[in-house]
Structures are given as C-alpha cells and as structure tokens.
Amino acid sequence: xxxxxxxxxxxxxxxxxxxxxxxxxxxxxxxxxxxxxxxxxxxxxxxxxxxxxxxxxxxxxxxxxxxxxxxxxxxxxxxxxxxxxxxxxxxxxxxxxxxxxxxxxxxxxxxxxxxxxxxxxxxxxxxxxxxxxxxxxxxxxxxxxxxxxxxxxxxxxxxxxxxxxxxxxxxxxxxxxxxxxxxxxxxxxxxxxxxxxxxxxxxxxxxxxxxxxxxxxxxxxxxxxxxxxxxxxxxxxxxxxxxx
Length: 244
Ligand code: NAP
Fold this sequence. Notes:
Elements: E1 9-13, H1 18-29, E2 33-38, H2 41-50, E3 55-58, H3 64-71, E4 79-82, H4 97-125, E5 129-134, H5 147-167, E6 172-179, H6 185-191, H7 194-201, H8 212-223, E7 234-237
Parallel strand pairs: 1-2, 1-4, 2-3, 4-5, 5-6, 6-7
Helix pairs in contact: 1-8, 3-4, 4-5
Residues 14, 16-20, 38-40, 43, 60-62, 83-86, 106, 134, 136, 179, 181-182, 184-187 line the site of NADP nicotinamide-adenine-dinucleotide phosphate.
C-alpha cells in the first residue's frame, strides 16, 4: 500500500527521539512538510541534519504559555501526531503530586492544548485533517508501578473519542495507536529487566515487542486517506496483548 502525503503539512510532537523521530522522518520521506516539536535542541539539530526539509520547533510542551506562543508561528497543519509522552514509575502508595502533575501535563494536557491550536486552524480553513494520539496498551491494562502513566493513557483514549465526536463534523478525524512495549529510551526504562520483559512477552500472542516501524506504519495509516471512514478508534499495536 503506497501512501503519499505530498502537499500536506504535518506536526509531530516528541520528535526528538524514538517513535516521534521515526514518524517525522517517514512523513517527510512520504512528501509531507514536517514540523518537529521537542524540547531538546540537540535532538532537533541532529534531526535536521538527517532530513533538511524538517522544520525544528523547540518548546517544552508542559509549558502552556510557551507552547501557545510557539505554535502561532508554525502555520497551517493538516496532520497532527501527538506523540510526546513521559513516564515515571512509582508504586501507587508513593506517587507524589509533582509526579502526577508532570505526567498529566505532558501526556494529556499538552495533547489537548496542541490539538486545540491545530484543530482551530483546520476548522477555520474548512479543509479537514487527521490527528493521531500515541496512547498505549497501558490505557486498558494495569501494570505494576504505572498508576499515573496508565491513568494518563486511559484519559488520552477518552480524549481521543470526545475529540472525534466534536471535530468529526469539521471532517477532522481523531484516532489513537496503542502500542505494546517498544525498546526506545522510554521502553528500556521500564522493560530492560529480562524477568519483567519475559513475563509480559509470555502474554503477547505474537511473542515479541513492537518495533518502532510497527507503530509508525499504524500512525501513517490513520493519518492517511486509506482510513477516511475511521475516527474515534484506539488501535492496538500490541501483537494481540489486549485481546487476551
Ligand atoms: P522516547 O524515546 O522517550 O521519546 C519521547 C520524546 O518526547 C522525546 O523526544 C522527548 O524529548 C519528547 N518529550 C517528552 N516530554 C516532552 C515535553 N514536555 N515537551 C516536548 N517534548 C517532550 O519515548 P517513545 O518510546 O518514543 O514514546 C513516544 C510515545 O509512545 C509516548 O507517548 C509513549 O507514552 C508512547 N508509548 C511508548 C511505548 C514504549 O514502550 N516505548 C509503549 C507504548 C506507548 P526529551 O528526550 O528531550 O525529553
């Protein structure tokens, strides 16, 4: 299946590393003009070195005011990937208000904010658009020490559905991908221990974790006109984990 994004403008958050970086690069390769948003300038410098057409945007998405100001200059966007996310593992009884706020600020509040800015432009132009939120299997399954992370991704799934409901009449589709473990920096933090990894793997029918490209392929499908009648879904990219 060939997908072209020629003539489209895309914005990818958390594009400095991992899934977001690979998504930005692939979108650019498929013809989109890509704005890459992240908070570490060195990551943006190396990204632009890798792909000169990418527009680097350096901002901490946890900062509402700075995000609002920065996104004003990005221009019209047709495709949005809300990928930036963070985790901070703690036993439930030890979670602090600071950890709670940090994760909700990036994983949920920033998604709502960036989507508001971008979707207002889509609505005003009347050209429709597609938004993909990067959620997780952790939105629907409990994992030890993941109380706040699981709660943010559960909230994100419901935000995806409400956005689909309210933005649908403007021909803006909103979906999420919900990956299993991917061995990015974030994945390694939680799942590097062989015992822990094996326990989870034994519950994945396909018997492996996801590769970054598995997730990118699903994001591109949901962004593309190949999924024109699909909105409000949470698409597992989990080798069957959530089916069992
Ligand atoms: P990653 O390798 O840690 O990359 C995350 C990217 O987001 C980094 O570039 C990071 O920048 C950026 N970011 C984080 N907080 C930010 C902020 N406040 N403002 C701007 N940028 C920010 O993570 P990943 O594994 O690719 O994860 C991407 C998404 O997939 C996340 O939403 C995650 O929850 C989800 N996911 C991951 C897995 C997994 O196993 N890896 C599984 C399911 C879902 P800095 O490095 O500068 O902080």
